[in-house]
User: Fold this.
Amino acid sequence: MIQSASKKYNCIIVEDEPIAAEILENFVSRDKELNLVGKCADAVYASSLLNIHDVDLMFLDLNLPVIKGFDFLKKLKNPPLVIVTTAYHQYAVEGYELDIVDYLMKPIPYDRFLTAINKFKHIMVSEEALLEIADRDYIFINSGKKQIKITLQDIFYIESLREYINIHTKTETFIFKMPISKIEESLPSKMFFRIHKSYIISKSKIEVKSANMVQVNGKKLPIGRTYKPSIEF
Assistant:
């Protein structure tokens, strides 16, 4: 991945095991594009770091004292991208539901750390390349070296699949490596809204609706409990 020499991504380490934190700090220091702005051992201190610094990436241990990692993450209104570090396999599914970039099992090998960082950088580049068009009737999204033009009126719904999104349109389905939260920011709210952690729908394409479900283009999509209060059909 080619970045300008001046490009820096701010990151913090939230880890209560001193040795694990030291290993991560060493790994981060080897990458000139990563700038470690803070290191802490609990969620309270992590909150203050996030308030002080503009953080792009958080390395988050799940087994933190007082407030556990995922509970802390769910409370954040605008969380940075997150790479989870843990010794426990069972959290992987929940992690992907929270738009986690990657999931590192301790002890973390350096090559596995590099894979996670490359995923993070790919997402950041995709986010930077997402262009908002002034008249709001189409968007361009980078796909490799190409820019794909997508007309907003053609979109039925957008589906999140781990670190990818599928944009379902009248003619085809486009797949991009990008968190659903990032494309949500670029879509006009008068045309689209989020109904679930995994779905954004076009308001004009709703065929059937109920308290728990909407049907778009023949597909039944669930309405997430946390999204119900803010949905206005």
Remarks:
- The first helix runs from residue 18 to 29.
